[in-house]
Amino acid sequence: MLQPHTNTIAIQHDTRGALTRTHLVESHQWGWQKVTSNTVDDIDTLASILELNASAVKGIAAANTFELRVPLPFISRMRVGDINDPLLLQVLPLKKELINPVGLTHDPLNESDYNQVPGLVHKYKGRVLLTAAVSCPINCRYCFRRHFPYDKNRLTPRNWQPALNYIRKNSSIKEVILSGGEPLLLNDRTLTALLDEIEAIAHVKYIRIHSRYPIVVPQRLTETLCDRLLNSRCRVSLVLHSNHPNEIDDHVTRHLRPLVNSKVTLLNQSVLLRHINDDANVLSELSEKLYDAGVLPYYLHATDPVTGTAHFQVKDEDAQKIGLALANRLPGYLVPTLVREVSDRPGKTRLPLTP
Fold this sequence. Notes:
A nine-stranded mixed β-sheet has the order 3-4-5-6-7-8-9-10-11. It has a two-stranded antiparallel ribbon with strand order 1-2. The chain has two domains: 10-98, no CATH class; 111-350, Alpha-Beta Barrel (TIM Barrel), CATH 3.20.20.70. It has helices at residues 32-37, 43-49, 54-60, 72-75, 161-169, 188-199, 213-216, 223-230, 250-256, 280-292, 316-329; strands spanning 10-13, 19-22, 120-121, 127-133, 175-180, 206-211, 235-241, 265-271, 296-301, 337-340, 349-350. The chain is an alpha/beta fold. Helix 10 packs across helix 11. The protein is built from eleven helices and eleven strands.
């Protein structure tokens, strides 16, 4: 049985169906679909679970069209009574999101220009991205696709053939990236069917899955899913998304274990976020915890200039100093590459690590 994290909050339903704290970490024993269907989606419930001062929360929080959504296992790693907890600030809708200085846009990467067919984005040479699922179990407040037209890019077994035909007709495509949204929202049967279709395209050599699920709901890494990835014809990479060392606990590590030391490559990408992880000590600890769990740091992204994210932005010169500090204290394999994604460039733009 998985043991609770030392700062874990136990959660269950009361007799009226509301989510409350208890002495047992009930959500850690649920299947991933039950966890997903019981995400917290209102500020008052989240504040109550974390025992936050109601007045303090009302002073900074504000509901908006990008609604609150956070699963219970992720809440369990937040600190009780701490309104500045770094995990909480990644998901709590703030009044600061209503402040939008010049330079922030709904689509800073101009992905709409590369949305060749519904559900497919072809921006970089040799690889395409499929929006395999159009929602997430967690709404990260800094998400660069928070305004993406998912209603026009919903892929299902009934309509994914045009996207697959696009790949079939373009022999230069060597890698297919499953993203979203959250691609692991697809159940194992549907995901297997999609992987079967991709693997049947002879010129596709690599499959990459970008997912926050193994961090926020570790039990999504089912035995069936892990076996399917391990037996793929293609070389598979699973790119996780973790921003802070407090996100990595024994629950996460144990569910990753079947994929560690396998032919599946485990990587992590982080987003540099002001007042959350813009600190070399925090990021050093994250790299070490990831590596202990069998995951290599991959990218450290400068925050994309998305509408509603001004309070997360870190100046490039500050980001570069942090990157240099990481390079000076960690072995090279633990230093994520500091990058910014710039619209219309043929790849990620590396930020130089200047003193």
